[in-house]
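Budget justification, computational time. The allocation requested in the original proposal was used primarily to generate structure tokens for proteins on the priority list. As evidence of use, we reproduce two of the resulting records. The first is shown immediately below.
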Amino acid sequence: FSEAGRRPLDRFARLAMCQGDATVHGATVELKVSGKSYDATTLAPEDAWIEKLDHVTFKAEVARIGKELADQQGPADVAHLNKIICWSRLSTLIGLATMWYSINPISIFLLSLGTMTRWTIVAHHVCHGGFDKCSNGVYNRFKFGVGSLARRCTDWLDWMLVEAWNVEHNQLHHYCLGEIADPDLVENNLASLREDKAGAFFKYAKVVFFMVTWKFFYYAPNTFKVLSLHELRRNGKEATFPADAHPKYAGKPVPERWLDRPWTIAALVGNSANVFFRRSVFFSRVLGPFFVVRFLLLPGIAGLLFGQAAYTRSLVSLILAELLTNAHAFLVVATNHCGDDLYRFEGHATPRSPTFFMRQVVSSVNFATGDGKGGQGHLADVVDFLQGWLNYQIEHHLWPDLSMLSYQKAQPLVRDICKRHGVPYVQESVWVRFVKTVSIIGGRSSMRRFPAQYNSAKDVVS
């Protein structure tokens, strides 16, 4: 037997791969095939790998590659980062330099691309510590974008507060992947939309709205809420309704269900207003800086230099670029861990345990990667750049603190390890993954439930 844990039924019972009852040794045993529920008692054919996996050996091979890649990082990785920073900044600068002349798709696309890549490539990997040990402190996670408004404006100015992103993404998402505590679990976050009885047209109209607004409508307030909860817990406090709330609620603990509930702009009105943070603080500290620079300062400069028409063209271009960068980011972010061929889990896996490494693979998906063979170079980088370097999610979740160059090297190695151990390694076009994600959001399909009976008791906390 492998490290997967105790076996709920013997081999005779597991031969019956269908729902219903089976007679085993003269007794009637109810069989529940894996896939739709955590309490499955027998494995569906596509889950047969679970029983065969040697978790300990799998972890050892994955950890060995991660260590080798980390030890190899150095000047080449920093030079590669600087090249990508140059591409990202150049996209933004060309967009800014041309947006005033006419409202055109090239300027809009470049503005959008510059915004997205500054987040998903530069900030993402630096904030994970991918360059802490090889950049002489220039790109350090404890300095990048944090501590002051000046650092935020210089390093990464976006709708989200960098400190909030670091807690929500680096801590909760990466160490609770696929669990109910994962703040980026799309199927859970959009449960109300999945269950919505409205017609398909209205359902998918909401999906489109969410795609083009999600960074400021959902991600900024939700990451700030996570940061606020983190600070409360660190100080030994619980979340309560503010003193100026309705007398019925003032000073009382917030409902338990609110703690894991997605927090959007819409939650900042009514009884939930000012619960986790003051609205005034959120709009001034979180959204305010990016809004002022992006939609007041930049078009204002264009207007001063080139006149009223240039101001109008610049503002319209920036607004359209904002909608596009939201949609582009949704395409490559929301699809990373969503689909009916990926798993959700019951119970929390101990970080860096054998189960933890397995979960990172089977709850993540890769898109087309570089040249597909682990090669590096400008052409491979273009493929990865356009996908925000989020096309290496499997490798990134195994070792979050590596460089982009290391992920290119790691991809074929991890794929081979998974093939050797029979672990599902999902890699498909980002457009295929988008269709599967929309299917999950619309309630037409669901993610697979990893059967709790096969959790390792040593690795998983209930």
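The second record produced under the same allocation is shown here.
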Amino acid sequence: MAEATSGSESSLTLIPAGPSETDASALVGRAAVDGVVVYSVAQSDPHLAAARARGLPLVVCDQPKDVIDLPFVGIDDRAAIRPVARALVEAGHRRIGILAIRLERDRHDGPVDPAVLPGAALHVQRDRVLGALEEFGAAGIATECVPVITRHINDHANCLSAAREMLTTHPDVTAVLCTTDSMALGVLEYARDQGIAVPRELSVTGFDGIRNALIMGLSTVLQPNRAKGAAAGRMLLSLLDAHLADQLPAGPPPREILATTFHAGQTVAPPRQ
């Protein structure tokens, strides 16, 4: 975003999206800004409501993607996860676990009831999990038997504890699909500490394409994070120009869906016997 808007004599103000509805209204309401990019919040998030209330040009990046009356930049998470899920299935895996980060605004660390997944508030993780389950189901895997474990915060300690929980409570899994590379790196670290050989004894996949994951040879999905930020910045500048000229955009709000790429890596192999 900074690069895309650098020639427009504009500056960026970062507003953290904390849990407090009062803080959200105050922070967004008082911010000296001409336009807003809302990045990866739930549809019910008070920061999005406060941004809407300002009546300024507004772009949503990543989520909520179901708000069709706002400009949007993101990826198709449900389709993007399928290649890594398919790679596990094609390698012969049938006992697969899924590690994901937060699905709701309220904190939950631990197993997820499959029945709540379709209604999860945070669309990015919801769609990645559902996309993977759809791929598994198409291969004849009973999706209700696929363990899904989440952590609210995507940091090193939580990723490592999620890996420990998955592999101790479900020792029969031969593969772990992770909806972030950070989660997958946690699995690789835990497996190494436990003497579990990857991929000979355990296959692992991620999502994002962060530098450390690529260095580790992780099988993952590359998403264009820099391009996503740049697209959101350009879209906001276009809306600002129209706003200043009192020109209402014609037609539906713009939506830009960026492509992702499957990176085969070296962490998928046939299941252990």
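A brief technical remark on that second record: The chain has two domains: 2-75+224-261, 77-222.
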